[in-house]
């Protein structure tokens, strides 16, 4: 059973559909720009690369049951959750350092010594929210 407020909201939306859609579009574009600016302010914790196109977020606890992929959160427009995930559970790496880190992890599982050790990133602090 819908409440009085839900009925009002439904009627308002029906009367002002195009206005509501346009307003939501503007808000989402603003959030997307803020996220892009945030990524542009970050740099890789290993090599210092700072181009937003190559910034990745590496989860420090691989087996965390509450781990959420940042790219999925952004795709689903859950920007606040993405900021929280980055701030609390991730370190910033460029795409190259991120791939090297995972390659080294696989090599270590196999018992081989990592040719490019990335131990220095394990104790890095996560960046703060803008």
Structure commentary:
With 130 residues, the chain is mainly alpha-helical. The protein is built from five helices and two strands; from the N terminus they run ααβααβα. Strands 1-2 form a two-stranded antiparallel sheet.
Question: Would you summarize the structure shown here?
Answer:
The protein is mainly alpha-helical and 130 residues long.
- Principal-axis shape: elongated
Radius of gyration: 20 Å
Q: Return the average pLDDT rounded to an integer.
A: 86
Q: Please, how many helices?
A: 5
Which class best fits the helix and strand makeup?
Answer: mainly alpha
Give the strand content. 5-15%
Question: Keywords for this structure?
Answer:
single chain; 130 residues; mainly alpha; two-stranded antiparallel sheet
Topology:
Elements: H1 4-15, H2 17-40, E1 55-59, H3 70-75, H4 79-89, E2 90-94, H5 95-109
Antiparallel strand pairs: 1-2
């Amino acid at each position: 059973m819908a409440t009085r407020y839900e009925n009002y909201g439904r009627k308002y939306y029906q009367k002002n559909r195009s206005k509501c859609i346009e307003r939501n579009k503007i808000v989402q574009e603003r959030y997307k720009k803020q996220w892009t600016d945030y990524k542009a302010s970050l740099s890789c914790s290993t090599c210092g690369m700072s181009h937003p196109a190559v910034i990745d977020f590496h989860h420090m606890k691989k087996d965390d049951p509450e781990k959420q992929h940042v790219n999925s959160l952004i795709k689903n427009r859950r920007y606040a959750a993405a900021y929280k995930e980055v701030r609390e559970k991730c370190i910033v790496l460029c795409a190259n350092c991120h791939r090297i880190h995972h390659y080294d992890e696989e090599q270590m599982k196999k018992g081989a010594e990592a040719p490019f050790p990335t131990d220095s990133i394990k104790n890095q602090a996560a960046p703060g929210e803008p």
